[in-house]
Amino acid sequence: MDEEMKMNKQVRQVDGLSLRLSAVADAIPSGRVVADIGSDHAQLLIALAQAGLLKRGIAGEVNEGPWKNASQNVNDADLQHQIQVRRGNGLDVLKVGEAEVVVIAGMGGHLITSILDRSLHKMEKLERLVLQPNNGVDHVRRWLYRHGWEIDGENLVREAGILYEVVTASPGDPDQPYRGLPLPLEQAYEVGPLLWQERHPLLLHKLTEKLEGLDRILQQLELGRSPEARQRLQQLKQTREEWRRWQQWLQQDEN
Questions:
Q1: Contacts (Cβ under 8 Å, ≥6 apart) of 81
Q2: The pTM is what?
């Protein structure tokens, strides 16, 4: 078994889906009404329906091209009775209480939180959020914490050399997953409280990528001569030391 497959063994591959979307599918409770916002041609909902895991699906697309493609895919799969494709911005495609699970996957963290911010009244009766930000996952976790959503699941998958995170949350106690962590809250937003608690096998890879990114920025700042650049350099060096310390803790646990 190669290294990437070994690290991803916690994810059940779903027929017709990439590993990234399979991880999203794994986080969706069976037999629910699921709204997929920005539905990626309705692939996720179609795969769930074909696997007998979907009660009803709503695919939301804001642009005409993806909306037409999603509609065609649902028609081709003969699933019009089970999946509706609607055109609209974010959660505007939903009525209050219509969906039990909302999925937003494959977008940046800032965009995901802006979609949620615009539709707080649509979320009052939701059972679960399943979020897969391509970047800015700390913004997603911060938003969940500040709006009373308790993170109840986190996963990492690696596909074609890229790490993807899936975060699920339900209405509850937002402090719960962060209790007892050695990490400051702001850093826990980036690391992932459940990823840390469970010592996810890909978490060390995530921290290593973070350190490599900080090193690249530090190399550029070393060339700066302004007082602002020097100040920023010192701040980032301190940040790097903190991340290095968390990395060493994980490495010690693995040994």
A1: none
A2: 0.90
